[in-house]
Each structure stands twice: as structure tokens, then as C-alpha cells.
Amino acid sequence: MDLVNQSVLTKVHISLLSCLWPINGTEADSKQSLEGRLLFAVPKKGRLQQATLDLLAGSDIQFRRETRLDIALVKNHPIALVFLPAADIPTFVGEGRVDLGITGRDQVAEHEAFVPATEDTGVEEVLNLGFGKCRLQVQVPEKGKLERPEELVGKNVVTSFVGLTEKYFAQLEGLEGYENGVTNGDASVRSRLKTKIKFVGGSVEAACALGVADGIVDLVESGETMKAAGLKAIDTVVESTATLIKSKHPSNQKLVDMIASRISGVITAQKFILCQYNIARGGVETATKITPGKRAPTVTALEDPEWVAVSSMVPKENIASVMDELTACGATDILVLNIANSRTG
Fold first, then answer.
1. According to the model, what pLDDT value does residue 164 have?
2. Residue 30: per-residue pLDDT
3. Neighbouring-strand partners of residue 158
4. Which of 8, 235, 255, 300 is deepest in the core (most CB within 10 A)?
5. What per-residue confidence (pLDDT) applies to 86?
6. SS in 3 state form for the chain?
7. Whether the Cβ atoms of residue 312 and residue 319 lie closer than 8 Å to each other
8. Quick one: which of 71, 79, 85 has its CA closest to 8?
9. Which residues form the Histidine biosynthesis HisG C-terminal domain (predicted)?
10. Contact 225, 205 (CB under 8 A)
């Protein structure tokens, strides 16, 4: 753990040493404050941040982040939260500098396009978190002549995801060597690309209108920004959601498992609702087909021997139609209860 702490303290954000403690605190104090703590990287800003913070709160990971500080010590567990750009998290987790992280699958794929995983390096996905859904797509002007991605070969393409874009066009051009990462020290593969790929850190969608690019590769969530910029998607490079990742050699696997279990429970609670109702025994088979639950519904006898009570987890998005179907098959006293948290198989 000493090596991990030292690496984070010197390589992640050296300025944090003076921020963790009052002005008269020392670097040794800061290092000592992280001693024995699992390092958990979370997005410091952007589209994944708020949902991540909500997950941590639901998992009873208690912390207070001081204004403008990028490390927060968890009060009730030996964990230190490290706030990093989502794009940097796969690098620090993959190198073992940080034990655990939340980022997008698109960022993990981009990292691996540059630095393919080995037996000891790279990240392992622990849990698909389900939020932050988006697609990394090839886009061209809506009113232009380009209709297929092959037509962009040899032209100018702008993106923030250079690794994935180079890999995509290398495959499109039929170049050998792209499988293990186009830019992983193999300059010859990059030099043989006919397509001219340029990096832009933001406002990628403006590149075509400004004459910088013939096409772009950019993230699409709702598609509104793409349409507003007069663009259309002609192919998808990667589909992405937020994911919980860990290094291949975390400092505390037991703590990693506990965090993953808690987060999984919160996600399940967000997706499901508890439905309870009474029904005559003759209708149980039909009703339980409507509410099968995650494993099986709970059926409890009532004082009236002809009736039973049923309790089952139902996806929130289906609850209205489920209630209608239960009513139609004779169920009564139908109640719907929110689930604050859960542990399910």
C-alpha cells in the first residue's frame, strides 16, 4: 500500500498534499492520512459525477469533500476518494495507482486502445452501473454527400477519442496490427493510416461546420447536439455505460467486494419496486406469472384459508401495467412500496 499511496501522492495531484491538511500540515501528514486506505477514483465533474455521488450516498460511503479539494477521506470506512477526470481513471486504475474507479466504458476502451491490458496491468470490470448510456458514433454533415464510413477513408476526421478512432479506421482500411492497439508504440501502423485523425478536446461537433473535418467521431446521448450541429450518425464505434472497475491487484479485495455489493444493492433498489397484494388461491398461478419476482414471489397464507398474500419485486417501469393485470385476474389490496436498498442474488 505504501507504493500505491506514494504513487498517487506524487503522480495524481501533487498539489493535494497542501490541501489535505491545514497550511501548517506536512507532506508526511498527508501521506499518513492515506495509509491503509483503499483508493477509489470517482469523476470530478461531467455527466457521470452526480449519479456516482448518489450511488456513494446510497451505499453509505460517508465523506465530506472540501471546496476545490480532489481527495476526500471516507468517515466510516478505510477509503479515500480521489476525484479525477473520467478519462484519466482507467489509466490510474490500470496501472494499480488507484484500487477502484467509476468511469465510462468508452473511456476504458479508449485507454486500452493506447495501452492494451497485460497479465498484471489493465482494468477489470466489476459491475455495469447502467447509467450514463451513450454511443461513440461516426458522424457526417446531414446535407453532405457522405453516407458510409468507408467514404471517410483518406479524409479529415476530428475526435476526442483518438485511440478508438485510429483503431476503427485502421480496421476499416484493412491494416494489420490494429488488434493490439494502433498507438501502443507502433508508429508504423499509425503512419500507414490514410485517414487523417485530429484531436480536439471539446466542441467536436463544430469541426465540420468550421471546415476542419469531413466527419467526426463523438459521443451521442440524446442526439440533440448532433442534430443541432447538422450532423447524422453513420456508424457506432462503441456503446457505453458507466462501469465500476478495479485494478488487477487491489490493496483490499474484501473492501472492494463490499463496495461492489452495496452499489449493486442500490442499483437494484433504483430499478425495482415492491408489489404486495391479496388474491384467492385459485388465482395464484396466474398472478405469480404476472409478478414472478427476481427469483420467486413470496406467498404467505392469510387467516382466510381461501386467500393468500403475495409479495414480489417488479421493475419500476412496468408497475402500472402490472397493477392493471393483477386487478383483471382478481387481485385486491394492491400496494406498491419503494425499496430503499437491497441485497439480491
1. 94
2. 54
3. 198, 216
4. 8
5. 95
6. CHHHHHHHHHHHCHHHHHCCCCCCCCHHHHHHHHCCCEEEEEECCCCCHHHHHHHHHHCCCCECCCCCCCEEEECCCCEEEEEECCCCHHHHHHCCCCCEEEEEHHHHHHHHHHCCCCCCCCEEEEEECCCCCEEEEEEEECCCCCCCHHHHCCCEEEECCHHHHHHHHHHHCCCCCHHHCCCCCCHHHHHCCCCEEEECCCCHHHCCCCCCCCEEEEEECCCHHHHHCCEEEEEEEEEECEEEEEECCCCCHHHHHHHHHHHHHHHHHHHEEEEEEEEEHHHHHHHHHHCCCCCCCEEEECCCCCEEEEEEEEEHHHHHHHHHHHHHCCCEEEEEEECCCCCCC
7. no
8. 71
9. 269-341
10. yes
For residue 249, CA distances in Å to 94, 119, 158, 261 come to: 10, 11, 36, 19
Contact of 185 with 177, CB cutoff 8 Å: no
Record the cell numbers describing residue 259, joined without a space. 463496495
CA distance 225 to 209: 13
Which residue type, as a one-letter code, is found at position 132?
G
C-alpha cell at 64: 465530506
Q: How many CA atoms lie within 13 A of 318 on its CB side?
A: 15
**Are the C-beta atoms of residues 86 and 245 closer than 8 Å to each other?**
no
Q: How far apart are CA 313 and CA 297, in angstroms?
A: 8
Cα distance between residue 159 and residue 218, in whole Å: 6
Task: Supply the pLDDT for residue 114.
Answer: 87
Cβ distance 252 to 312 under 8 Å? no
The bridge status of strand 38-43 relative to strand 79-84 is parallel
- What pLDDT shows up at residue 148? 94
Q: Which three cell numbers stand for residue 210?
A: 468550421
Q: Enter the C-alpha cell of residue 280.
A: 384467492
